[in-house]
Each structure stands twice: as C-alpha cells, then as structure tokens.
C-alpha cells in the first residue's frame, strides 16, 4: 500500500469535501485513485463514502431543467451564438448575447492557432448553460448542492479538449483547485467533470434519442398518463369550495370555505389575518362528513373594480326552519379594499330546498355580462319531484342553469332583470330565468378564456354534472339546451319511459365516465394561462371521491374529446424546488387566477369544519414560457390587516429524495400522488351527488430565486499561447452577472 497517496486522499476529504456535491466527490475519490496507477486500495471509510455518494447522486435523475431551477422554454427570438438551442433550451436572446460576449473576451487572450484549435470547444462548453439539461450538467437540480463552474463533459470529449486546449482551462474557470490540480492532469480533470449517468454528459445528451424524442412536450408515461407537478399554495382550510379573483389587476385570490368565510391571499403568497367576509353565523353548514350545504358560490361583478359589487350563493335556514339557498349581492367596504360590507347584502333570489343534497352553487358571469346561476335538482335520488322531476320542469328553477341581469330591476318587482334573449321568455309554461335545463347537480363550471392567439373557444361554458349511480359527465352549456336528466344519465337512459319519449335534440355530454373511473365529478377549467404553453386548450378536471385528475383534449377535425389521466409527483419529472409528490384525496374544486394559472383544492377529511384542506397549483415540468413573457405587475394593495406568511406543510420531492429511505405505510398514497387521508379519523364518504363536502389547507409553495455571484478577475496583460499558459492566469469575467442562483460555485 502506498500510504503517502492514501494520506493525500484523506487530506482532500477533510479540507475540500464541502466544496463538491456528492457526484463530484464520488468521481474524485473513486476515479482519481484509480488514475494514479499506484494500486492503492481504499480504506473501508473511503469505500463506504464512494458507495453512499454514488447513491446520493443517483437520487436526482436528469430531467430538462435550467440553471434558475425552472423548465426549459422556446426562445422568443433567434439566438445568434448558441444556435443549437434556438428552438428549445434555457437561453433567451439576452443570455445568448451575454455568453457570446464572454466567449469573445476569452478568445482575446488566445493566439490565432488557439482560435482554430479551441474555439469550438470553448463555445460548446459555454453554451451548455443554454442546454435544456443545463441543471443536470451543472448539478443545479438540487439547490442544496454547490454549482459547477464547468458543465459535465463526456470523458472522450473532455480528453480531446484537454489534449488540445488544456491551457484554456484557466480562462474558463477561476477555480484555483482545478487550475492547480488538473491543468496538466487530463484524467483528474475529466474525472471531475464526469457525470455518473453517461447519457446526460455533453455531447452524448444531444445524441440520445430517448432524451430528445419529445423534448418540450408534456411528458407521458407508458400508459399515456400526463406527468404534471404541483406546488402547495395554501393549507389549513376548512373545505375550500372555491377560489376566484376580482379581475381588478391586484392578483389577489379569494378563497372561500364551506362554513362561510372568505380569505384573501396576496401575490406574495401571504394571507390576510382578517377575512374578507365572515357569515358563518348565517350559513347552514354542519360537521357531518359529506354534507353538501354551506357557502357554495362567489362571483365578482365584471365591473367590480369600479362598483365594488360581488355575489354569493349559500344555504341557510329561515325563521320557519325551512332550508333554502340564497343568492345575494354585497359590496366591498368603503374604508378597506380587503373587507366586504356585511350590511350591504341585497337578496336577489331564494329557493326552497326539498332535501339537504344537490344544492348546485356555481355563480359566474359570462362574456355577455349576465350572471349564470347553477341549481341542483332538489336532492334525494332520481329527481322524484313531480311527474317529470324538477330538472325537466321548466316552470321550476331547480335543476337548471339560470341567467339574469343583475344591473337593474324588472317591472314585476324582482331585484334583477331578465335578459331579453333568454330562450324561454315567450313560453308561458316556463320561468323566464331559465337558460338551460335537464341538469342534475352541476358541480363547478367555468368560462373558457379562449386561445391566447386565435381566441378560439372563447366564452364556452364548461360544467361537470354529477351522476346518479352510473355516469359522471362533462357538458358545454348552450342556450335553451336540455341536458337530459332525469330521462338520461350520461349517454344512457336513466328513466326508461321518459328516455323513450325524450327529444332527439337533447344535448349530450362531451365526455362521460362510469364507476370504474370515478363516482363524483368535479368540473374544472380549460387552461389558457401564460406559464405552461403546453397545456393550452386542455380541459383539466377531477373526481371528488377517488382523487383522480384528468384532462380532455379536443380533436379539431372531429370535434370529439379525448381523455387522459394526469399523474402527479413523478420524482424524475418533478424534481424541481418547491414541487410536491402528493395531494389530499378529495378534490373539491378547481380555480384559475387572474393570470390564468390553474389550481385545485382538495382535503383529506371532507367535513366543513375540518381544517385539512389545501390549495395546489399545476406546473408543467416539460416547458415554460420564455423569461419575462408572463411577468406580472400587480396593482399595489394597501392592507390594514396583518399578513400571515405561507408555511408549507407538504414535503417537497427534493426533501423526500434527500431523506434516508424509510418503509412507507400501506395506503398512504397512490401512484397518482394522492394522499389518502391525513386525519386521525377515517373519512367515510357516500356520494350524495355533488362534491361530498371537503376541507382544504392554505399554503403557497414556492422557491426563492437566488443570484449567482460571479467573481471579477484581473485580465492577463498579454495573449497566451494555447500550448503554454500560466497556471495562475485568471478567468475573465462575464460582461453580465450570471443569472443563476446564489450558492457556493464549484466545479
């Protein structure tokens, strides 16, 4: 045994270990030893260290990710320098220009022979910051590990570079350790730059068909399940039934709990300590699991910014102990933009509820400026009210989509007007408020914003209608449409006699699914946001009972919709800071913020009083919009109430990967990332027909964007030849600071 060399390795371990992430330490300790040719054998400590670090490095498999910890993107403009990545990567034009400036600054110190010999290598190495796999090449996938100064190079390529241009190493990095140990030692240098996974080193990463086949597209697993990621935005909520924005450019999010409390979340993720509205003493809600009564709807007037009006839908019990639903108008406080005036309530409509279930609850404004109200069929089972049921009875307001004009009063004394083009205004046997009928219990509807460029789809009204015992359905609401209930359920007959006598003009669902898929649909949104362009046009929805997330994609040629499952929390695709691997099972509602980002709310224990509900944001790990395109400028809001910072409860994927392996309790989570229950009590839910009540938690998971510190080096006084260059020649600094993250830089 060569003890002096053994001591050299131990000295390196004790003095420099903290400088290098696991993968590079593994490469140094395991490969540098073998390169000495001395036949030294490691001690047990070193063997254990190599194996443990190798395992740690394998935790984070390579996936497309940039040095700012975000997914890659399609540059909005042509890249003049790093042209290999002009279609997809991690550089916009500004970053490309910065890299080009650094390249020419380096080349100023190299003689003409070096230009020919080393120019291509230097350009390739610098441009790896633009690679869609830049984070893996620079070990930037985990914020806890130091960042490399140089990207991971394949050994053969690295050897060629070192053989031809070793004297340029000091121009590419100012790391003295690299300059002193590796400028003349090719094996050491290339072992330090080596990546454990050979598929991801440069230039192999460009040639790997598996890594580049669908680069930039939404990732699908072998079964076609779309791989999306989540961040936790809010937690500790009591059955959060909805989240809406006021469209006033403040980008505040208003989250309503089933008990009758509305909270405000600010763009920085904090929540105001005092609620926007608290009417829980009026709202009829109980702790019973699955109780569908409570605060169910909220919509802001299209001109809320100017008139301060908003509308709510809730269950209550009148003085005669009769259960009703009430739709009313309120105004924001004149003295505080973050507080409603509870004394301003103006009742618009009250409906008697024959049963405790099927209360509908959705309120929204269409592009026409009118308010749409969605009512359930009255409850119980099979719509047993009257000869044909409430839903088919156009003289009843239950089981309907209603449309009213809230900006006026009718001549008959109603506190609203009837839009003159409502479909049944001339039908003496129908209520003029009715816009569509034959619905069972639509739970969560949304207006499509339309394609950001073509505006296609703008104004379409999507709804999820909960089925009786066979089918759940997704519908697009049209004026005067009959959606079939109770004659039909999904595409099939429910009441055989009514079904055989029903009209052929009944509106069929765009999609329906049976009990093998789920038991209680929760309607969602068509994604039209800026952040995740891959998701544009996808209608994303879920099932309350089993926590299944799904997406519908329209075939423009056939106008038919194809369904795909959504899988959450893949540890490879979602190994980004702030991403989580699971969510609470019972999906209550979906939401869209002012910028078009998409969210959903779920709970682990569906009781109106249980604070187990959370709010999550969808993230596409495969592609994002170019930097700056989606930059928001929220209108500042003066707050009188204390701001409560977001405190995440869910562990991120990176935190889980860095934990020692443990045995997971059975039934904790599923492959789709659903957390089955976190309550000490077991949630027993029976599909009553709508959301089956649920509870959420407030949280806004995010990551801090840090800046990389770039050391400014003194320029050498003379040009250097490629064959001879001082080992102490410092690397020239970039003309601009590198926009990566503040961590200790390292090879």
Automatic annotation (TrEMBL):
Biased composition (Low complexity): 668-678
Higher taxonomy: Eukaryota, Metazoa, Chordata, Craniata, Vertebrata
Residues covered by the Glucose/Sorbosone dehydrogenase domain: 238-565
Gene name linked to the record: Hhipl2
Name of the protein: HIPL2 protein
Region annotation Disordered: where it falls in the sequence: 657-747
InterPro entries (UniProt xref): 6-blade_b-propeller_TolB-like, Glc/Sorbosone_DH, Quinoprot_gluc/sorb_DH_b-prop
Gene3D superfamilies for this protein: TolB, C-terminal domain (2.120.10.30)
Pfam family, one: GSDH
Biased composition (Basic residues): 704-724, 737-747
